[in-house]
Amino acid sequence: MYEAFGLTKKIGNWTPPTQYLEGPIDYGLAEPHCQDCFRCHSMLFHCERIPCNYTSTSYISVEFARDVEMQTELEQTNTTQESVARYLQNKECLKDPFICVVNTGIHDMLILDSDGDTFIENVAWYVTLIQPCCRHLIWIQLTAILDDEAYRQRNWVIELWNSKVQTLLQGDRFHNWTTVVDPYTVSMTWPHNDNVHLNQSYYEAFSALFSPFLLYGDLENPSTDKLFAQSV
């Protein structure tokens, strides 16, 4: 994983997460440098043409707004979010910034208070880290769940957290840099595959929102477009 990101895995003792602040809490806690999620894989796409005249797209799996799953040695990062920011910096983002598509929250509900205050602090910290590398941030709000009693996530918490994130990102600090996409209402009546995940047709329809950009890029500057998507 670290080699693919062009980063160096921390050699010394892995620093565990601070309780009630950051992940991981399950497999990633028992196995340092691993994720809690078994099927959440990053996909990094690199254009090999010089100069590259294609839209370059990468998908990075980040489970929480703040977690210590990735920790690096030479780069001296202690969190996944700092490591992602360093990866983006290594992709010459200051010269050619990304459009960043970000979503998180479902896993955070397993460790944080339902009032969302710590979550909002973590979101603000995370987006500030990647802000220098993103010419624009597209934030994807959380979708509705089935409210299965076997799980800790609840729709009333999702609604509260979505509202607080929107207030944060549309406030003075970030409003001229972000777009908030809110699929919550649509997802309430959309078929689910399980408590959290919707069926394939939803993700196909939702991904189509980004198809024009991926196909045509920025019409004013088609040779330098890069899209970074992060979610689980």
List keywords for this structure.
single chain, 232 residues, 6 strands, 8 helices, alpha/beta, globular
Describe this structure in words.
- With 232 residues, this protein is of the alpha/beta class.
- Helix content is 29%, strand content 13%.
- It contains 8 helices and 6 strands.
- It has helices at 2-5, 27-30, 80-90, 117-130, 155-169, 184-188, 200-207, 211-216; strands at residues 43-44, 56-61, 98-102, 134-140, 178-181, 226-231.
- It has a 6-stranded mixed β-sheet, with no helix packed on it.
- Helix 5 links the parallel strand 4 (134-140) and strand 5.
- Helix 4 packs across helix 5 (155-169).
- The radius of gyration is 18 Å and the shape is globular.
Spell out the helices and strands N to C.
HHEEHEHEHEHHHE
Number of helices: 8
What portion of residues belong to β-strands? Answer: 5-15%
Q: What is the gyration radius calculated from CA atoms? A: 18 Å
Structural class: alpha/beta
- Percent of residues in helices comes to 25-40%
Q: Major sheet, described briefly?
A: 6 strands, mixed
**Low-confidence spans: pLDDT under 50, at least 5 residues?**
219-224
How are the strands of the largest sheet arranged? 1-2-6-3-4-5
Q: How many runs of DSSP E, i.e. beta strands?
A: 6
Mean pLDDT: 90
From the spread of the alpha carbons, the general shape counts as globular
Rounded to the nearest angstrom, the distance between the terminal CA atoms is 16 Å
Summarize this structure briefly.
This protein is of the alpha/beta class and 232 residues long.
